[in-house]
Amino acid sequence: MDEEENIDSIPEGQPEGGQHFYDNQEEDSHDTITKVTGMYKDWFLDYASYVILERAVPAIEDGFKPVQRRIMHSLKELDDGRYNKVANVVGHTMQYHPHGDQSIGDAMVQIGQKELLIDCQGNWGNILTGDGAAASRYIEARLSKFALEVIYSPKITDWGVSYDGRRAEPNNLPVKFPLLLASGAEGIAVGLSTKVLPHNFNELIDASIKILKGKPFQIFPDFMTAGIADVSNYNEGMRGGRVRVRAKIGQLDKNTLAITQIPFSTNTTTLIDSILKANEKGKIKIKKIEDNTAAEVEILIHLFPGVSPDKTIDALFAFTACETSVAPLGCVIEDNKPLFVGVSDMLKISTNRTVGLLKSELEIQLGELEEQWHFLSLERIFIEKKVYRLIEEETTKEGVIAAVDEGLKPHITHLKRAVTEEDILRLLDIRIMRISKFDSNKAQDKIEALEGDIEQVKYDLEHLIDFAIAYFTKLKDKYGKGRERQTELRSFDNIEATKVALRNTKLYVNREEGFVGTGLKKDEYVTDCSDIDDVIVFLRNGTMMICKVDEKKFVGKDIIHIDIFDRNDKRTIYNMIYRDGKSGPSYIKRFNVSGVTRDKAYDLTNETPGSQVLYFTDNPNGEAEVITVLLRQVGSVKKLKFDLDFAKMAIKGRSSKGNLVTKYPIKKIEIKEKGISTLLPRKIWFDDTVQRLNVDGRGELLGEFRPNDKILVIQQSGKLKVITPELTTHFDEDMVVLEKWHPKKPVSAIYYDGEKERYYVKRFLIETENKEEIFITEHPNSQLEIVATDYRPVAELVFAKVKGVQKENQIIDIENFIALKGLKALGNQLTTDKLKQVNLLDPLPYEAPEEVIPEEIEVMDETDLSDENISLEDDGQITLTLE
């Protein structure tokens, strides 16, 4: 900054010559001393207000920030139907916007990329890949037809002056559409910010019509990048709301995933970078990644053999930008003040403003039509009544005007306003040639046409709401095609990072010294783990601890069991026998672990000093083994050996004391017989909203599942598979059957063979598990019509009309039509006639064979094995006294 700028920038009243404005000015004791805090407060407030009002936050009236409004105004001034170089538009806009050309160019590119207001030509960048636009001198732009129709109306525009006072510019453009909600807006000001998410064009129009009709409505975001969004916590787009957005990930085959849509606020470059970083950190494990994105997104993720695609999809959502969370914040400018408002209120304000603008346009149109009618009526009187001849003898202007005025008076009683001097002067400007060729009938037709237009405008004003509804409907019909919703709305399930994290490191333990961790590579290997896992540790003295995976951590000496801990696992049951104190009695207990605090030691015994665990097993599915207990020879004990069945023990909490086994010392405990699960079969539901299995009772109940039970999945594409019901399984959108699999239950299908151009029917049993099979022919035109898993399905054939002849519908009993064949068999030809439709009817009655269920083990109630009901005879054998 030069010296002149320094002098000019000194605030008024500030001394020169090196003094500071906070120094005492002894020369003039009457001068007011201004402290720096006061000046800073005023200056900062001015700056903050300027940034908020003139830079970062859009106006509620038209949805534009100042730079955007000035760009649109410049485009209108330059509009001649042809494309203009963006550099020229930027230069023209600088007449109104007192900032650099770079900010104007960037703002214009952002408007153009939303494909609504600007018709773009050239390389304007790619929102999918994140590629920037070409230089402004290379790309061109003009206003779209939509912008010309809804944004501009000079006669009702609120005009102001530009920053230098040389030109008129709009304070607000008369936008007759909820543009702010359609385009979205984002900005960071001083002390506040705004983030209005974009919404769907057609849905906004539908909602505006509902507002005008007084009906309830809801609007949700829709993004140009598509993807899948969970808007359950949208909160009307206000502070505190949250929108979760996910990429659309499909499974091409067992080793390849395909991302075809990306989340809002990301692009393929940032998305791929996040995937590569997660792979480097060991969160996921991928072989390679390909980016084939052009006009549409296609990112291929190749997996190593043996890596679960379902688990990898969840891991992508948990650890990469494939899932993002967007925090909306509805902040706009209204009457030069920030207004925090929800999207529904924004739409109501916009809709009501549109109605007001339409009313203003109609009123102006009515005035113009009435003015045209008035002058045409005067013109007709002036010519037909030969009023123009009265001016022949007049020699002055005043005399001419007075003569015409006097001549018109007898004929103007039907006019709607008085005749003014301006009207007379316009009449006097009519040329003689026009008077000589005046056609009274044509003039009357014009007046009558104007009267019709006037009545129509008056009718529209009287029925303004209906007129506004028709206006919005016309916009949708004219511009709504191709603007259907792109972002799929769906509720998301919460993915637990610990369940999907790739276990890319190994956990080791030093049992004697009491250390666990990933750095103890010379010690005993336990299992693979990830750095976000928890570890559960049991010690010989009966204490238990949960801790995070670490490189090396001391948990306590004499470790008897260590594993990865899942706090939501209710089916892992621990079977334990412990001695109470150094020489006390022994107790048996079964328990699970939940609701624990990390790094806190829990005592699983009776908390007597010297207690010791004598026997311990962990059972992932609640198994209960039979053990043999051997006692030491003490006193009069005769039988030193007896069996004990854990299945007869009730499962209690970890803090329970347990039930008495013996008061004598135990020498040894051996497993006599491995146990089966004592837990009830697990009920599994399918939640169609999130397309996931669950055990929480959400959605449709699929059935009760034992450890070896499977589910059957059939797709419209003719593929099927039998899989283990894991809660992390992803299901394709074309799934048509999802049910518990019964190996003896046949599958029936009717399909169209694309090669032979015939319909076939087949019945088969599924004999392979965990393998995807296709049961229709693989011709591109082959198509599955119906598939049924009933024992005796029935189908209805609806024939197409051929040469005016309609054949009656035919009912097919599939069981009698075809015998069971192999899955790969072609099947039997169904008909040679052309079918219009195939319907699946109610099946014939059939009594399914009873399912063979293993005999359930009766789990005794807590009182069945209480201390009062159990005793030890002299020979050491447990005796159960049951009611």
Keywords:
alpha+beta; Neuraminidase; Gyrase A, domain 2; elongated; five-stranded mixed β-sheet; 18 helices; 883 residues
How would you describe this protein?
The protein is α+β, with helices and mostly antiparallel strands and 883 residues long. Among the domains are: 1-32, no CATH class; 242-326, Gyrase A, domain 2 (2-Layer Sandwich); 503-677, Neuraminidase; 682-841, 6 Propeller (Neuraminidase), CATH 2.120.10. The protein is 25% helix and 28% strand. It is elongated and about 155 Å long. It starts with a helix and ends with a strand.
Taking the alpha carbons of the first and last residues, their distance comes to 100 Å
Largest sheet: 5 strands, mixed
Q: What's the CATH topology name of the domain at 503-677?
A: Neuraminidase
Query: Can you tell me the CATH architecture of the domain at 503-677?
Result: 6 Propeller
Oligomeric state of the chains in view: single chain
User: What does the radius of gyration come to?
Assistant: 42 Å
CATH class of the domain at 503-677 equals Mainly Beta
> What's the name of the CATH homologous superfamily of the domain at 503-677?
DNA gyrase/topoisomerase IV, subunit A, C-terminal
